[in-house]
Write a structure and sequence with these properties.
Layout lengths: L10 H4 L5 H8 L5 E6 L4 E7 L6 E7 L14 H17 L4 E5 L10 H11 L3 E2 L9 H5 L1 H9 L2 H7 L1 H5 L7 H17 L2
Parallel strand pairs: 1-4, 4-5
Antiparallel strand pairs: 1-2, 2-3
Helix pairs in contact: 3-4, 3-9
């Protein structure tokens, strides 16, 4: 009797880094993917086109890119929104008008960081199928909840909890104002050819 041939699964499947069933479902749409990933310190937003020889990244934005627009990029809701907004603006400039959201193995938490990035891409002009219930409110997106928390703290506590913001001359008690300026700077730059 012949021995049964044992096939080795893809390394990313073995290590639990990729769910190929979900990936195939996203690829069947034929649309570019808005890929949103979150680390402990940053948020990454990409617009990726499928190619049989390997995916092609059309746009790649991390929260580190936001420093150019006067915003300290962190892994929070306002930073994710601005990342999604910038990625959406750059994608529309490259002729990409619609996409499908790819959150990978992240647990979908309504009104969270991943959906803040989605809201940014939607506001930038990308058409992406979604549920409005999942998107965070304008107050959350603009950082009003962080600003209100900063206003409750004493100066000593503020210096401890927001030291990175203060090092970058970002006043946490005026976060919504800084958010509006950063969004305006992205809009201004995206309008240039």
């Amino acid at each position: 009797m012949p021995k049964a041939v044992r096939t080795l699964k893809f390394r990313r499947r073995r290590t639990g880094h990729t769910n190929y069933k979900k990936r195939l479902a996203l690829l069947k749409s034929g649309k570019p993917r808005l890929v949103v990933r979150r680390s402990n310190r940053h948020c990454i937003v990409q617009v990726v086109n499928y190619k049989p020889e390997g995916d092609e990244t059309a746009v790649h934005i991390t929260t580190k890119h936001l420093k150019r627009y006067g915003w300290l990029g962190k892994s929070n809701i306002p930073s994710a929104y601005l990342c999604g907004y910038l990625a959406g603006k750059l994608a529309t400039k490259k002729g990409i008008s619609e996409a499908v959201l790819d959150i990978g193995l992240s647990t979908p938490m309504h009104k969270g960081v991943v959906f803040a990035a989605l809201k940014g891409a939607l506001d930038a002009g990308l058409k992406i199928s979604h549920s409005g219930e999942a998107l965070p409110s304008e107050d959350k997106v603009s950082g009003k909840h962080i600003e209100n928390y900063a206003k409750m703290l004493s100066d000593d506590e503020l210096n401890k909890r927001f030291s990175e913001y203060l090092k970058e001359n970002m006043e946490p008690r005026k976060l919504t104002e800084l958010f509006a300026k950063a969004k305006e700077a992205i809009e201004k730059e995206a309008g240039r050819e």
